[in-house]
Amino acid sequence: MKGIRRLAQHLDISIGTVSRALNGRPDVNEETRRRVLAAAKELGYVPNQSGRSLRQGTTNIIGFMMQTGTEITGQGDTFFMSVFDGVQAVFGRHKLDLVALLCSSEEDPADYLSRVVARGFADGVILSATQRHDARVELLSERNIPFVTLGRTLTDAGQPWLDLDFEGMAQASIDRLVARGHRRIAVTRPHDDVNLGYVFVERCREALASHGLALEEELIFRSTPNEAGGYQVGRELLSLDERPTAIVLINETIAIGFYRALSEAGVKPGRDIAVIGRYSPHAQFLSPSLTCFRLSLRDLGVALAETLLSTMPVFREHYPHGTANKLWPMELVEGASDALHIHQP
Amino acid sequence: MKGIRRLAQHLDISIGTVSRALNGRPDVNEETRRRVLAAAKELGYVPNQSGRSLRQGTTNIIGFMMQTGTEITGQGDTFFMSVFDGVQAVFGRHKLDLVALLCSSEEDPADYLSRVVARGFADGVILSATQRHDARVELLSERNIPFVTLGRTLTDAGQPWLDLDFEGMAQASIDRLVARGHRRIAVTRPHDDVNLGYVFVERCREALASHGLALEEELIFRSTPNEAGGYQVGRELLSLDERPTAIVLINETIAIGFYRALSEAGVKPGRDIAVIGRYSPHAQFLSPSLTCFRLSLRDLGVALAETLLSTMPVFREHYPHGTANKLWPMELVEGASDALHIHQP
DNA sequence: CATAGTTCCGTAAACGTTTACGGACGCCGA
DNA sequence: TCGGCGTCCGTAAACGTTTACGGAACTATG
What we know:
Two copies of one chain form a homodimer.
Chain A: H1 3-11, H2 15-22, H3 30-43, H4 49-56, E1 61-67, H5 73-91, E2 97-103, H6 109-116, E3 124-128, H7 135-142, E4 147-150, E5 161-164, H8 166-179, E6 185-190, H9 195-210, E7 220-223, H10 227-238, E8 246-248, H11 254-264, E9 274-278, E10 291-294, H12 297-310, H13 313-316, E11 326-328, E12 331-333
Helix pairs in contact in A: 1-2, 1-3, 2-3, 5-12, 6-7, 8-9, 10-11
The first copy, chain A, binds a DNA duplex through α1, α2 and α4.
């Protein structure tokens, strides 16, 4: 005899009463409830999740999907840990558990999702690293699984999303650099089809155009989102016949490798080239200090959670409006890396 | 009508046959199997995980437990991503899925485990960041849940473990530094009760003793496992009346902050002080290059997975011996940071 | 033709919960 | 005394699978 039956037998009451007692139902004598709880602790009883899920059709689990594998590895970093922190702060209030769904780089992300989540594994999903066209969005929306994306995508199923304000970053960076006299400005973008790359580059292009400048193709560097990618960008940049006088780095970690490549060539950020990047715990310790854009990842996590819950009937009352479809602003942290001013001839 | 019943109704066959067809049982006509699979795809049927788990008592999910929260955040890093990669390479062969169980720093880790895993959420667990005394080990062993730990612990339930060879690192580091004439050698250790701290410091002490040297208390620096911790260590070290001539850093990311603190004071690794650390994708880009210990995290992940599976009856035949209770060797990568030689007076 | 064996499929029980329903019992007011 | 009401509890169905069991149809063998 196992599970709730064992408990009921031990107490000589029915399993219905045991269940009600454990779940805090009102129609159970307080004395019996006390006995049940005591016995549960004594016998080390914990309700079986499968049985509960099967009956209730709910798992109390929210999945945060992320991809493993070496090339994306640099992105994992502390970024997600901080976001998780915020997400959990909200989930904790509703007995929801957050787990990270780790999709191997060898498997198709949509297949993975279909396999693990459409089976009723999670009550809701948070999607990150949205691609330009993202089959995962279609899948979840077809299956009516509540979800929210961190990052926009062209695949529109009416889902709520949050995203970093890459447009704002692009605009502010370009304006700032142009104001300092830069005319030849480089940008980086991710190596893959993650949507933010398109958004960022396009806005850079527009911002430059508004100043009467063009974004030259040879100044758009593709880079894996890790240190090695940044190093590669640095090498390529240095090998150009006509170097740019400034660059905007879209990923957090690439600044490290980029700095190194410059350093090896005796090129110093802030003196020989202006560099603007993204904040990360590492960037903080770069020298010369990196001018970068930062935001509160924890707050972003909170917003993600609230937005997701606002789409779920059970929780909607707590989060009537949510925070959906919002660009998350980034704040400029002034450093020394973009101190270089170009004097017009 | 939902689920497998709907499929059966649609095909006008019994649910038993549908189930057998989907699960690749031999006792089903190939033609019917074809029809079932086609219909499943057409209707978008995916088996419900709860129903399956309830019946089979198995979930096909392995949990990798990790803690979120800011102070440990630096440790997350790319370390785990690489380990996951190896774990998944093995799990992929057995239709097992890896998920990261994210325990909020606000919840007791053992409570968390009991809540999420004892409920039958996962078939097995990988525990990381084992504390000196770790209640999670007791819990899992009481509940007979297969698990393996990455890191040793004094809490012994006969569980299999793998660990990095911190003893080897300690010994080699000390030997190397002493051979270069260093007498006053500092070490770092984690701020919390994670077991590796004790192991590492003790072995350093022994190694020093074997050379007739003592490990002075003021030269043992506690540090959070992130950049900020490293910076703090650097500041403290610099403020000592009598500075050490060498230091061994136990965590991967602290070198970054440590370098920065030194740099601010005009102290250069390899010239003014010898530094030995751990490899990380960042460390690779430090200047002067960091002498550090590295290992294949992917291989470690593979071993973790194989060891876990070897303890699970269903998979035992594939992994008869496992790789349990092994210290994972680290290889020394020579850099410039420990080039300083002390000439004896 | 009888028998045995093989191939395939349907039936129904079981997994561990939750919960709608109804009943037993005691209490109160009419 | 009776009906009504409130409190508490037991019964049993339901959730969606898997699988042991048995049987029908067919084939092979003598």
